[in-house]
Protein 1
Amino acid sequence: MRHSKAEQHGPTDFERPLADRGHRDAAEAGAWLASIGVEPDHALVSAALRTQETWASVSDGAGWTLEPDLDRGLYAAGPETTIDLVRLVPEDATCVVVVGHNPTMAYLAQMLDDGTGDPDAVAAMATDFPTSAVAVFSYDGDWSSLGVAGARLDAFHVGRG
């Protein structure tokens, strides 16, 4: 997931908060995720303020109480490094949510897609990956083995509240 709409200014880029719209959009994305049966047991979230606030609003919208794994490295990570971070999630995790920044999240979603998923989701994701965009993948394997073209895109949604 890409973080939701943030304010244009903050003390630093890392400390930019979500805009009111961002909170609404993230809550809607969370409600949508819950409606399709997504229930994560691990969340990898950039430590930037806007991604933390996105996770909090997504969780509220979905009714989840999961505490995120905040990672400062995810703030500036490229797609390859982000895959490396996902490879480090606990082996017993069955559903992982990653909340990060663009362009990394858009590139990561394109890299993970094995081309066998839902054609409408593939087409929607290929045209844009705006704030509050969520790509839902299926992956059958150990997280440590996740690689390029290693997951099937099942759904794509842009939260708009």
Protein 2
Amino acid sequence: MADQPEPKALTAPSGGDVTLLIVDDDAPLRNRLGRAMERRGFDVRLAESVEEGVGIARRERPAYAILDLRLSDGNGLDIVAALRDARSDARIIMLTGYGNIASAVAAVKAGVLDYLPKPADADAITAALLDHADALPPPPENPMSADRVRWEHIQRVYEQCDRNVSETARRLKMHRRTLQRILAKHAPRD
């Protein structure tokens, strides 16, 4: 079998505004993603908080943005409004390790183009930023199993209820003992 050339990585459009704001409170991820996006031709600005992200959005009016949903001082959706006020045509991608349908819907309603789970690679992010078609993205190579998605949802609600089993069970409309058995188990494999 002959070696096939690797597909060429997507790059920022030449000749246009390629300013990119990346806001994430995870410094290693933010810096690694910043370097990867610079290699793809973007003019990158980095921020670690909502306050810093809003300041850069208002001051520099970036054409593109990659935002983490949960930040140490608030929610990445707060930055979306500042970006839309500064530049209505900004292309915004939301990254999160805590994805759920409600936050995805809120992000899209606020003006986010795509909602990607962490860890997302730079090629997938670049494709989402530059894709101007309304087509659905290709299915993920290794999606989480239904059992894993259920387990992640239960864990998230449990944390949001301050680890209160009774309150979590009530909100999930689940028997308390059933929830306790689920919480005692390890996460299902993908």
Protein 3
Amino acid sequence: MELLGIHHLSAMTKNAQDNVDFYTKVLGMRLVKKTVNQDDPSMYHLFYGDEVGNPGTELTFFEMDQIGQNHDGNNSISTTSLRVPNDEALKYWEERLTHLDVEHEGIVEQFGRRVIPFRDHEKQRLMLVSDEKNEGVSGGIPWQQSKADPQHGVIGLGPIHLTIPDLERTEAVLTEVMGFRRSGTYEFTQTENEVVVFETGEGGAGAELHVHVSPNLHPERLGRGGVHHVAFRVQSEEELYQWIDRLNQSKLGNSGFVDRYYFKSVYFREPNGILFELATDGPGFTTDEDELNLGETLALPPFLEEKREEITKNLKPINY
């Protein structure tokens, strides 16, 4: 049993149309699935990724039109990284973000890689990470019809940053239960705090957690521009059941097996309250749509299909 890397990350948005405009037109990602929150079908659940939304490339958003602004703080997933092919791509993105008036900090060094910290239109903390020196989990394939140059396009999720007040208990879960291993430390220049890096599977940018320890921060209040949970890759449904057994044996409260149709999952919280998910690599997003037409219509899992008319009435159309 070994987690293969980052599977997806789910964040919060106030407006689905504005969200689609930013992530497809500015970042050039593909909307690979337009569906609803299966636990609350009144809201959109949007999935962006590479050309087919391969595991490890999926950035997703729940739309809540009444949600307030995120208040950054502790006990949080504090930065989401997006991988690009190389250092040359970062130069392209630095120019593009500047041209499109996207707030960013320019190209800087972090943990031996070149990165661009930036924020989206709702102030979500993001980071473009160069794969120039990456060894480990391979990236995906940028969408060739992207609004951005596919040669420099986003190829997947990179290191996910957590901010917590106490490392000891979280590290125990990461290493003793989830099988992560320490791979290094660095000083985060913005806060001068030490960041501890953990990796799983083949390692590399697509399989890392960067854990910031900040005992003096207030807890985060989740809102638009905040992150709901991060998911890690499990090879098969059979192995997912083994992970559920391990969580139970470790006395970690969890959701049990959940069928999300496009993948199977289990959810639990690490000791500082951050929501983790373990998700299978398959069956994937071509289960109910062909590759050429991914994301073009509202996709619903079979158990919601009979409610399609009612669900559609409650959703505002998205143009893209």
Protein 4
Amino acid sequence: MLFIVIPVFNRWAFTQACLLSLRQQTQPSFRVIVVDDGSTDGTGERLRQEFPEVEVVDGTGQLFWTAGVNAGIRRALAQGADRILTLNNDVVAAPDFVERMLLWSRRQPRALLGPLELDAHTKEPVYGGEVFSWLTHSRRDLLQTLPTDQRHGLHPVTYLPGRGLLIPVAVFETIGLFDEKRLPHYLADFDFTSVARRHGFPVFVNYDAHLLTYPEESGQEQTRRHRSLQGYYQHLFGIRGGGNLRNFTHFALKNCPTPLVPLFLLNGYARRLTGYFLHG
């Protein structure tokens, strides 16, 4: 049985749209667990009223993404899940999203799969995976290198984000859950999929499965939209900071090939210290 785990904190309109899209799936054989981490906008009550088929796990308000996802995963594993799909609440699944994810999961039963992401407004592809070089600290964006006629099926990548990540239960049995102690919010998904790949689990983007996303709603985009010294501090040191230096250090030490660690850290620190003001 597939379990879909969605961590939420407020933003009920997004959660409602996401869950409605799951109700419209052509493959309905799955269960949904929403981890409500102390929402103050009535999310918990609305979930129980409007979506009685959804299991709600209440958080403390201090779980953030990683511990929230882990709480849902633990509940799913206790109920016999054989696959788990982590999903953000600010996404809308295409009607055949689950069907196409499960189709390829059965063909590649050990693989972690992520979808092709489309902009919810324009329906244009915005994320199709990347291949990362630890030596040059550079990313090869598959959307920029794949010819249009090859944008189907599975394509190998270095890591995947957690907003639509399908994980076979064997991965948890081998490497455990997401690293909530060292990576409480950002980079936990990239870390988890990188560790899984090194343990022999393939990591693919599934170009046949589509997920509508709102790129402008990410925490990093909102922080950069209103630049300030306080925002810069949060960017580098806040739990939700996209450039959090502590998180980046943990990620590098866990995943970068040992001989490349010093250069990789210096390069990464420089990018995070300057990138907040340089990138639009």
